[in-house]
Amino acid sequence: MKRYDKAVKHVITLTLNGMTRTGHAESRMLLVDFLRHELGVTGTHVGCEHGVCGACTVLVNGVATRSCLQLAVQSDGMHIETVEGLNRDCPGELGDLQQAFKSHHALQCGFCTAGILMSCTDFLKRVSMPTRQQVTEMLSGHLCRCTGYTNIVDAVMDVATQRMEKKRVEHA
Ligand code: FES
Ligand code: FES
Question: Is the full-model pTM beyond 0.85?
């Protein structure tokens, strides 16, 4: 296992939204700060900085993770996905989840939105046709101070239905 010295900056190389990125981090630097300040990828927000609000959620090796609870040095060699990487095959276009948030008015200030989108991305990979209760439980890991949660649940349910319908048509 690598040993990290507090005083020095470490070279961290990870895969961010499909691209290899390298930067420097002190041992105590949080992953979210590394993404924002070292790599300049600022879509991921920082709220509470202690794992409560969910604003900083990214995918780490495909799993929704609080990037304020993981150090940059722990992320060396890992695959990180942030909101910037959603729908990256069609740059400049919204993905289905983002479009559904827009259509259902599932955001206002948007501060919580990047994190929620990443949790929803992970969730819908695991639970393709969830109940409203399951979506509500998933969202319980996120604080949204201005939109309320009903529209967010509506957006997630809409996407799940659209994806199921798309699959049904593809396999017809
Ligand atoms: Fe990470 Fe709030 S900033 S959970
Ligand atoms: Fe403002 Fe959620 S949209 S905090």
Answer: yes
